[in-house]
What does this fold into?
Amino acid sequence: MALTGDFGSRDAPQSRVGMAAAIAHHGELIQGVFKDGAGRLHRGLVTLPIAGLRSEASFAKGSDETINVYPHDKIKAAAAARLTLDFLNSSGGGELILQSSIPVGHGYGSSTADVVASIRAVAAALKVQLRPSSIGRLAVAAEHASDAIAFDDHAVLFAQREGTVIENFDGSLPPLLLVGFKAKGGAPVDTLQLPPARYDSTEIQEFGVLRALVARAVRLQDPNLLGRAASASASISQRHLPKQGFNMAVEIAARAGACGIQVAHSGSLFGLIFDLRASNLKRRAALVAQQIRRAGFEDVEIHMVNAEGWKW
It folds into this structure.
């Protein structure tokens, strides 16, 4: 991937340090194959951001070309730091330190959060603010497939293997409460080792409908429309990457009156979507969490999405 941009930078003093963070996500609301404005097909997704989990990075610029990263296994983050220095026309290397509260390998976007935080930290060390589109392209270049958390809570349909925006929904998702969980014994998933799903023509047509539902959900701030789209995409995903307990999760969602169910399309996560503005939501969420645990699911957590100003 060729990366070009208008963000040049002079070499920074050796002591310059940049700090930044990136949020996690809870899998995807929809994921599939979508048409661009010219009718070409692209694999794409709409990310469900989770601000309560995050990766934090600090980058100390140095004159030596080496990128020293801690922990040492954060190879993709180190690659992202090097790509960012090159993108900003800055020689030298530096020391990259990462800390993260994001579980690895289940669909929370831990790798991408590390990568995006690292890109932002390098840019901060050079006193440059990169556009989310530039960060997204750099992230894909560093890890080959990424998600849309470079855009934080702004909703976009993102081509995860190209680093481009297929559609900008011009807003954020509606306020949601998410009850997240995993199937018992759900093993971590290596996204890049999964063969891309091969969708048929009927599924591709359905993805166009789901895309329109998401656009309308954002415009009207309607969590029920969003839940419908997520549930349909989760059902398609189940045909390609089956998840243990999916039918049970769907039944629990229906009994609880959830807006819908979403999944990590290349992970082990489930999520039940609720309207954050609904009445008695705290009590309902607690009851649903109990039902989920009794059904044998694990790691039940409650998250709020785009809930600034809301009390829980």
